[in-house]
Amino acid sequence: MIAAAMPSPRRADARLLVVSEDGSLAHALRSSLTDHLKPRDLVIANDAATLPASLHGIHLPSAVPIEVRLAGRSSLAHDDVRFTAVVFGAGDWRTRTEDRRPPPPLAQGDRLALGPLVAKVEHMQRHERLVVLKFDGPVDGVWAGIARHGRPIQYAYLARALALWDVWTPVAAVPVAFEAPSAGFALDWSVLRTLRARGVEFATITLAAGIASTGDPVLDLRLPFDEPYRVTASTASAIRRARAQGGRIIAIGTTVVRALEHSGGHAGEAVADTRIGAGTQLRAVDALLSGTHEPNESHYQVLRAFQKDDVLARATAALEASSYRTHEFGDSVLIFLRQARVVKTELESATLA
After folding, report:
1. Could you tell me which CATH class the domain 2-50+160-350 is placed in?
2. Which end of the chain is more exposed for a tag (fewer CB within 10 A), N or C?
3. Are strands 249-252 and 54-59 parallel, antiparallel or unpaired?
4. Phi first, then psi: what are they for 93, rounded to 5°?
């Protein structure tokens, strides 16, 4: 596959590979997405807006330049300014993440000057570049400092520096994501109008989408980090209504799958701390619209809950043969849950009621 190097979230020529319940494959334009949905289906997207989560500054004990990439929180609360973060040495996104210098030796209690902000290393997280940071000062000042000084996290395959509006999806609301919930780039208001006209409902959840890569293969094995989320009462009600009417739940992005499977479709706030993969029996989601993912990426593991490995291998081969674009501004895959799904028992169905 070819990396999508320019932030063009809604290209007219964007492509869609459809993986049906029986494992068959079909190529289409992404603009035809609504043709693959049925009345009474429910489409659910992540409405998290993306933070400018890359902060450059100085490791004060050594006076060495660093980059901090905020990567996680324990809640969505406004007053929660304690973050899991990945720390790099000098450099920026123009260098491949895998080639970035390590940070200076970090220790609990170290202070970091990040533009107008100062943060303290509260804990090391069993890796030289993974820390928990707590920012000094009033909460509103912390958020203002992140907004003024931060930049969107990005990677070397991109051709130019990203602006914040490049990483906000059309349904972006509360700024809590650390990287864009990029499957949502496939949506626009025209798509949402078409969904409604065809009797397909639309709802949202909020999940603080984490980072895609740390640049370290050992640390990448720990992705995704824990992610806080919120499922509103209205979305939970829409899920119950769709199920009662025989509709399917279509997740726009792996973050939505994670939130819905962790919550069981119930309303509330929690932290998604489990992984979804080949051994996961999905309870809440019937199909996933996602970007194109390589087998070595953490997001690919979520696809393995929908289809068997041989089907996914054929899908990957089809994507490569047809030069689909990958990464967050690339093409899309619509993957339906395989037909071998275990029929819900009355007890399992009741958990969604």
Report:
1. alpha beta
2. C
3. unpaired
4. -65, -15
